[in-house]
Amino acid sequence: MKDTIKERIASLRRFMQKKQINAFIIPSTDPHAGEYVPEHWEARKWLSGFTGSAGTLVITEKEGGLWTDSRYFLQAEEQLNGTGIDLQKEGLSSTPSIAEWLGEKLQAGSKIGIDGWVNSISTVENLSKQLLTHQLTLISTEDPFTSIWENRPSIPENPIFILPLEYAGVPCQHKILQIQELLQQKHTEGLLLSALDEIAWTLNLRGNDVHCNPVFVSYLLITNRQATLYISPKKLTDELTEYLQQNNIIIKDYKDIISDLSNYKEKNIQLSPSTNYALYQAASSATHILQEVSPVVYLKAVKNDTEISGIHQAMKRDGVAMVRFLRWIKEAVQQGSESEISISNKLYEFRNEQALFKGISFDTIAGYQQHGAIVHYEATPDTDIPLKPEGLLLLDSGGQYMDGTTDITRTIALGAVSQQQKIDYTLVLKGFIALSQAVFPHGTCGTQLDVLARQYMWKAGINYGHGTGHGVGHFLNVHEGPHQIRMNHMPSPLLPGMTITNEPGIYRSGEYGIRTENTMLVVKDNETSFGAFYRFEPLTLCPIDKETICKEMMTGDEIQWLNNYHTRVYKELSPLLSPEERIWLENATSAL
């Protein structure tokens, strides 16, 4: 495989030589700024062999570098070994930026190529400024992988389906009117949506074009007079066509977006900074561009009453699947026939038995012992290891249901664990509980709460490199903005109706990883003379393994929270279980 990677890089270098450019930058995104992308746009993965979901690859005439974050350091080191591509660890003070690295490697006046279709406006503008300080020029070229990637997967053309109003809660016509009203308030003539989850939410449609994310490849142009969906004609069924026509949505070919933007007649158009640069170039030739985050980001993040009700129901069914899995796994491991992949498959079976299940919300992370330290580990036939009745299993998984999306992590003791593992497990749990208990005033953003989850680890000289929480879509992408809980500043406030995860962790390289995660809902707490205050309500319903807790490290308040949570889990799930399962759950949720 390493030789194959080298040959692919050589083919890109031949393209670069032909175009007279000295380096080429390949991001992990697609024309829709997706975190998870269809295979057609997985050029960075194809060229480098690195399979993580985040990373930027840079190839010069003689060298290569790949920038990725701490979730993937271990994975990237292993997969890039022998390819001629050096790992550049993002977030470390010793790691140069892409512009700095290129400034060191190239002569002044060199040209850096990008494909404008898969690079956002903000990326291009920021990178251009950075490169200019090194006397380097960024230029947009055609997609090199059209010519060098043999047997490249095609752009997906899977069917689309309508999300019934009983799950969506608000008709798509009402959503479009709301968007148009917001545009009129700001004297904006039009809005281009390119993010696939925004389009799916607005139209109450779902698809299967992206692995684990129920979205479909398209663009949606909304003006004050009309809405136009740009989509492959092959996706259109009679039912879908009728639905779109009934909702006064014009249908055009996916490929027509460039020409329509180039001939746009309105005074201005709003594009998100995450819109791809090719569309920006087309629109800027015809009208004034307003660069601003789409209003749909905020509308979608605050769930309506129907969506919230559906999420609660999805969490119950997901909790049933998790209880059945947790009841099964320890005995199965004792028998000695299970591995990371086999238990992932078993968990899928339990979820697949649940009503309204449409698939997993991301590839299951089942990391046993040392693999648990790889934050976004995914077992493959080459890395799969057997589970033994000892040590820790980190299991991060989720499901897509017609009425909600789930995301949960549990760290499971499969047998005897060390004292250090117990201490680390309890530090994680204490931070998890502290964040779960937060009460905060209106206007608070996730960055202001992040320390609650880290405080006990920090006192022990421990930290983790990923964010503490992310938004979760409603039968949409498992990662949803604009709100997050993380150390770096994320200004979006946490508002009632938003879903957010709580997932602190500790990772000891080569030994084990620990993470506990619930999805939570922001709800109103009380109103005082100082204003409105909010809190978190747990959505996830699943026992937290008690075997690894150092009870002496826990305060009475923390123990009470855990006991109250477990009481709720038993109350909500027990009516849905068999008598034998209820007995198991009663023990798993008994008071600490």
TrEMBL record:
Alphabetical keyword list: Aminopeptidase, Hydrolase, Metal-binding, Protease
Record has Ligase as a keyword: no
Stretches assigned to the Peptidase M24 domain: 311-523
Molecular function per GO: aminopeptidase activity
Listed PANTHER family: XAA-PRO AMINOPEPTIDASE 1
Family according to the record: Belongs to the peptidase M24B family.
Name of this chain's protein: Aminopeptidase P family protein
